[in-house]
Amino acid sequence: MDAVLVIDKPSGITSHDVVARVRRLLGERSIGHLGTLDPLATGVLPLLIGRYTRLAQFFAAANKSYEGVIKLGFATDTYDVDGEQVGPGVDNIKATLEDIQSAAQTFIGDIEQTPPRFSAKKISGVPAYKLARKKQEVELKSVQVHVERFEILSVEAERAFFTAKVSAGTYVRALAHELGQRLGIGAHIAELRRTSSGEFSLQQAITLERLQEIRDEASSRRRSLEEYIVQISLHPRQILPQLPSITVNGETAGLIANGRAVNLSNLSAAPQVKVFAGEGKLLAIAKRIAGSLFQPKVVLGS
To answer: Which fold has domain 3-61+200-232?
Structure first.
């Protein structure tokens, strides 16, 4: 089964939990997600299924968009509502909406960000959160990330509603934590929803409950589950829209399936292309090596 599904992840479970559940529902072992969401977070979690897992490398740099709520008044050790309070709280928050908006704007652009101690970043091969839970010292290096948008929409009592668009590798809960530090009042993420990841959006997403219903319907009608999954999977011409597509004949498809370089006319300016056999069968991602000569980089089938 080869497919691309966008799951609307529920709160309270990990991204790995989602993958495990979809594996059971589809009876497919080869499934991977594109970008971890914290257990607290909900929203867009794209899944690559079957041979499409070989495409994961092409999505590594995808920007992410979020909406959510920042709780003002105190920080937590995890930078979100699931953590324990760190330091004294601030009962009387005097910061105005304009103050908070102005502080948020200082994060726009390329910034240095230190990942949270409670994160999946590895230290000598061990996830940082495992060390943090054992109260062991966690020292993570800062990394450069890009914040395209961090907008505070409104403030109600101690809750600041926001939207953000950030580069891959950015921790939004770290932004909330650092915003609290900058304001001198402490802050953490109370709610977080990913609204897009690269070309994937909430409009394309289905819930795990809906996927269960689809599996049950296929079973009750004694139909192939793959037939149903193809109907809800993103069409392969929709994914990686930055790469041009070309449809090849049978002879060229055979060469590509065997890893041979081929001439793809009228595409000499494109560094990489999606190669199709017919409308819906994605054969490979090919890389230009000279002129109109392309070498298959990832082969998905014959």
So the answer is: Pseudouridine synthase (3.30.2350)
